[in-house]
Structures are given as structure tokens and as C-alpha cells.
Write a structure and sequence with these properties.
alpha+beta; five-stranded antiparallel beta sheet; three-stranded antiparallel beta sheet
Length: 212
């Protein structure tokens, strides 16, 4: 094989929190091909979902607090929007919460993915889903089965915004009081690698496993 990618194969999957997620291989990385929808345990209790305000502890939301519409089994299959505290907790406790080797990607691992897909100027277009019914401007070609879809965010003020325009996906890498995330925008083929956002924002998660 040319060293680029294995195409998306539905039977290739990982089981996380009782649910199976499709997986793609890109370079020497395995990536979830859907956003995470996992109500994992935080200090012995299920992660709180749908909280008001902007908690500085692990928390998660469905867009518009509508699981039937935006959950992974719902109409739009977006999964949960986690604040960065949740992403960090999940990564810190991966040994007990996740299958062996799976974790929240660092900024360095995101960079490796982007380079494997042709660089920052056009990687987003190749990683975005090719057809999204609720976003006519979503311009992906989904070359690798990664299937990024617009799921919006929960902003630091607690509002759900940009559900047909953006998908922000967390990294595990902090940046002072902010945290790094990947920005996929509806009409852009490029990807913003080093954008940072407050840790209280709700964004999606994709997990990765690096092969040795």
C-alpha cells in the first residue's frame, strides 16, 4: 500500500463505553471515524450532561440539549460536546476508561494527521464528510472515511452556536488558560491547527491510537 491510507471499512471498529465506533487508518495512526458519545465515569459518577453555566470541571452537552437529534444515534449523529476539562480527564484516565492505546490526540498527533492528508491548506476538505443534509455549504470530499460533520459548539457563555457551520475537535494539549482544538469550517478546505479556545467551551472528541 502506498503509505497513505486504508479506506474506511465498517467492520473495522473499536468498542468504547459499550458502543462500537468505526475506525480508519491514516499513516501509522488509527482514528475514530465518528465523534465520541461516551458518558464516562468521573470520580465514580457519570459525567454530568446538560449543565447550565460554564463549569470548570468535566461536563458534556448534546447540541441544544437534544440527544434524540444530535446524539450519535440521533438524526445528525454528532455525539457529545465536551468541555476541555472532560477531554483532559478522559485522557488522564485512559488506562481505565479507554481500550488499550486509545487516547485524546495531542496537538502533535493532529499535526501528523494533517501532514498525512496533504498539509494544512487542504487536509480539512479531505477529512470532512462529502454530503451533509443540514449544511449545503459543507464542502468535504471525505477521501479517507474520516467523515467530519458540522456539530457546532457550546460557547463559553453557554450558547449553542454554528451547528451547520463548524466542528471543533479537542486536542489534549493545553495552552495556558485555553486549549488547542482543530477547526473545521463549512466552506474551507484548510484546517486551523493552532487555534485555542477557553477550556469551558463544549466541542467534539475523536480518539486516536498510534501504531508502533
Amino acid at each position: 500500500m502506498s503509505g497513505s491510507l486504508l479506506k474506511f471499512v465498517k467492520s473495522y471498529s473499536v468498542k468504547i463505553g459499550g458502543r462500537r465506533y468505526p475506525v480508519v487508518k491514516i499513516g501509522n495512526q488509527l482514528w475514530m471515524a465518528e465523534n465520541l458519545d461516551y458518558k464516562f465515569q468521573v470520580n465514580g459518577s457519570q459525567i454530568p450532561t446538560g449543565q447550565s453555566g460554564h463549569p470548570s470541571t468535566p461536563a458534556a452537552w448534546y447540541y441544544n440539549n437534544a440527544e434524540a437529534t444530535y446524539g450519535i444515534d440521533g438524526t445528525y449523529k454528532c455525539g457529545l460536546l465536551y468541555n476541555w476539562y472532560a477531554a483532559k480527564y478522559l485522557d488522564d484516565n485512559k488506562a481505565t476508561l479507554l481500550p488499550d492505546g486509545w487516547h485524546v490526540p495531542s496537538i502533535t498527533e493532529w499535526e501528523a494527521l494533517i501532514m498525512a492528508c496533504g498539509g494544512s491548506s487542504d487536509a480539512a476538505g479531505k477529512l470532512k464528510a462529502s454530503s451533509v443534509s443540514w449544511s449545503v455549504s459543507w464542502n468535504g470530499t471525505d477521501d479517507y472515511g474520516f467523515g467530519v460533520i458540522p456539530c457546532g459548539i457550546r460557547d463559553s457563555g453557554g450558547a449553542f452556536i454554528a451547528g451547520d457551520t463548524y466542528d471543533y475537535i479537542w486536542s489534549s494539549t493545553p495552552n495556558g488558560g485555553n486549549s488547542y482544538y482543530m477547526e473545521f469550517y463549512a466552506t474551507s478546505s484548510g484546517i486551523s491547527v493552532y487555534n485555542t479556545t477557553p477550556a469551558t467551551v463544549g466541542a467534539t472528541i475523536r480518539l486516536v491510537k498510534t501504531l508502533t
